[in-house]
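Hey, I was hoping to borrow your eyes for a little while. I've been puzzling over a protein and I'd love to understand its fold better. The fold is given in discrete form, as structure tokens running alongside the sequence. I'd be grateful if you could look everything over and explain what you see. No rush at all, and the record is pasted right below.
>
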Amino acid sequence: MKRFINNVRTKLEDRNRSNELTVEELEESELQLKPLTKKSSILTLTPILVDGVLRANTRLRYSEDLQDDVKYPILLPKGHAVTKLIIKYPHETEGHVMGVNYTLNHLREKYFVIHGRQEVKRCIKECAECSRCHRGCKAHQQMAPLSRVRLEVTEKPFTNCGTDFAGPFYNMQGRGKARLKRYLCLFVCLQTRCCHLEMAASLETDGFMNAFTRFVARRGWPKLMLSDNGTNYVGAQREIKELVEKINQEKVQRMTSNRIVKWLFNPPGGPHFGGVFEIMIKAAKRAIYAELSGADVKVNSLRQSSSVPRVC
């Protein structure tokens, strides 16, 4: 465009008729980018103006080994046609083999694109050559149908339940006394997703059974209980793993068999089997942490906090 304007303004014998752009023309075209308005939010990034071009004032400005284009890259707005052309140029010249990170690093040698990663992803996604070469049907995991116990809408709430643990939550005992750990025991109805929260007082089986007894006293005896067997807890949930592993599954089944309660345990390598109560554990923990605000509280306050997010 600049060459065309110059040729129109010059005499016929002095016009540039070359098919290739010179280095001077390329550098001059970069300086003719649309200037940024003074009210733009980009000014909060403390940019600098060099020869009328807006450049990013990076943290590399004291380097003596890097070029000025690297220390002060040209700022480019997102979604602009010029920005898209600049992004597409290295991608196409390298044979469409440059990924997002490689293209972004190549651009940052001279340019700083606002929301650069999103712009590079969008340009590569819109590339016709890449779409033609890499087209194909993506595999989509088909979700299994819901089990029958989750579709028994005629049953009362908490007839079929799932249970899981979360924590620990620390409990103050007074000045000079060690803090105690309490664990959240969640019971969720498999049909209605209603939740009941109790605090388990210890890492023993009796601690869980006490929480289960309080749950039964309020909600009645369930027909089916579903839970993890504890072997899927790793890393930061080591203490939860110890809690669930110490729960004697045979003792739980024996204590509930006289009430016709069927107890099922998920496979050791299948935590996704308990997604119905895992997602509710996440919501309950978020609510309790927001209520406690990271503070250690007394047992009454802890019980009160566990009752706040209860949904029934």
